[in-house]
Amino acid sequence: MQLAPDLLPYIKERIDERRGERGRYVLTGSQNLLLMDRVTESLAGRVAMLRLLPMSMGELAGRPGAVFPWESEEEIRCRAVAPAELWTGFLRGFYPEPALDPGRDHALWHSSYLQTYIERDVRNLRQIGDLTSFQSFLETMAARSGQLLNLTDVARDLGLAVNTAKAWLSILEATFQVIILRPYFANVGKRLVKTPKIYFMDVGTLCHLTGLKNPEHAMSGPLGGAIFETAVITEIYKTIAHRGEKPRLHFWRTSSGREVDLLLESAGKLVPMEIKLSSTPNRAMAAGVLSLRQDLKGKTIPGYVIHPGDTVLPLGPEVTSLPFSGLSQ
Questions:
Q1: Contact, 107 vs 88, CB < 8 A?
Q2: How does pLDDT run across 130-164, given as a tens digit for each residue?
Q3: Distance between CA atoms of residues 171 and 137, nearest Å
Q4: Angle, CA of 2, 5 and 7, to the nearest 5°
Q5: 251 burial class (0-12, 13-18, 19+ CB within 10 angstroms)?
C-alpha cells in the first residue's frame, strides 16, 4: 500500500458512501503507513490496524488460538525439544518463509530482508543519507539485545549525535524491528532502574546481525542468554499482539541489582517471569520472582522461571519452572 498512497482518499470516499458495509477492502504493505510523509489520509475511524509480526509458536503449530499457562486451568503441556532443534529454530527465526521451509537458505533470506529493509523501507520513511552508518547502528543494537540501553554510549561509540541515535532507534521501534522494554514502577520504597532494555522482534534477525550461523555457537556463546531471553519475550509479545491487543510488558530491576526479566500485565494482575538459559532449573532461580512478589503484595499472580528444557516443577511458593515449549497451550 505504501507504493500507492494516493489511493487512500478515493478509498475513503467509497467507504463513506456505504458506511454500513464492513470489510470491503484489505490493504497490505511492509511499512507503517502513518509514518510516511506522502500519506495525507489516515482513514481514521474507518479502518482496523493489524500488525502482522513474525509468527508465534502457536501459529507455526497450527494453533493460532493458543493461550498461555496462566490463562488456563489445565495442566501445563509441553514437548521435549532437543537443543539442536530449538536453536536451529532460533537461527532460522519466525518469519514465515525461513520458519516454514526447511530447505530455504535462512542466512540468505535474512541478508536479503535486511538489505531491502534498509535500502527501501528506511530510506522511504526517513531521508537517511549514510546507510552504512545506519547498518552499523543496527548491528550495535543487536549486540545489546537484552541489555540496559544507554544511547549516549552507543552514539559515542559510533560517532553519532545522541539525537541521531534517538531518531534511528525510534525508526526501528516504529517499523517493528525492535521492542523497547521499559521498567515497571511502583511505589514500594525502593530505588528502581529507569533505563529501558531493547529486544529484536525476530530472534533470527538478531542471530544474523550478530554473525551467528551455528546452533551450538549460538547456544553456548556469550549471546546465548540474550538470544533465549529475546525468544521468550518476543513469543509472548507476538501472541498478544496477534490477538489485536496491546502487549503490556515491563521488567523489574532495583538499584541493588535485584531483577525480574519480565512482568506481564494480564487481567489486572502482574505475571512475573524469570528467563534462564539453563535446562535444569533450581530453586535459586526463583529468588527474583519471590522477592518481587513480596514487594508487590496483592498485585501479582504466581510466577514462572522459563527455561529451554522440558521440566515442569515447583521452585518455591507459587513459582513454577516452565519450558519454552510450554508457553503456547
A1: no
A2: 888 999 999 999 999 999 999 999 999 999 999 99
A3: 12
A4: 130
A5: buried
Who contacts 326 (Cβ-Cβ below 8 Å, separation ≥6)? 69, 76, 77, 78, 312
Question: Whole-angstrom Cα distance, residue 17 to residue 276?
Answer: 55
The H-or-E segment that residue 259 falls in is strand 259-266
Q: Do 155 and 165 meet the contact criterion of CB atoms below 8 Å apart?
A: yes
- Predicted confidence at residue 230, as pLDDT, reads 98
CB distance 269 to 300 below 8 Å: yes
Residue segments in the chain with a per-residue pLDDT below the cut of 50: none
Counting residues of the chain whose pLDDT is more than 90, the rounded percentage is 65
The DSSP bridge partners found for residue 316 are: 319
pLDDT (0 to 100) of residue 130: 81
- Which amino acid would we find at residue 188? V
Place of cell 489516515: 42
Q: Give me the half-sphere count of Cα atoms (radius 13 Å) on the Cβ side of residue 10.
A: 4
Nearest to 227 by CA among 276, 264, 272, 262: 276
Q: Cβ(196)–Cβ(149) under 8 Å?
A: yes
Tell me: the pLDDT tens digits for 211-249?
A: 999 999 999 999 999 999 999 999 999 999 999 899 999
